[in-house]
Amino acid sequence: MNSIVTVQDAVIAFADWIEPTDAELDAIEQEMPVILADVDLLDAQILTLDRTPTELDARRIRRARRRALAARVALINRNNASMPGGAA
User: Fold this and answer.
1) Which segment of 10-24, 36-50, 64-78 scores lowest on mean pLDDT?
2) Mean pLDDT along residues 8-34
3) What angle, 0 to 180 degrees and rounded to 10, lies between the N-to-C axes of helices 22-47 and 55-81?
């Protein structure tokens, strides 16, 4: 059986604008610590989905939540420090 490809699909498949720009890649690079901290938090939460969380699980989730929050704060502070001016 032959698959049918529309002209639009064929054109979009090779369009240059589909790839992320350098600015978008830089933004992803800056946000990577937040992304990884969120992944760790999700991993800790997923471990407790099919069982009753133990005290160790609760501590693991709290630590992961604190790391995720600290990563977000660090990103915000880094972005605010790079902006000209500031709060008066």
Assistant:
1) 10-24
2) 81
3) 160
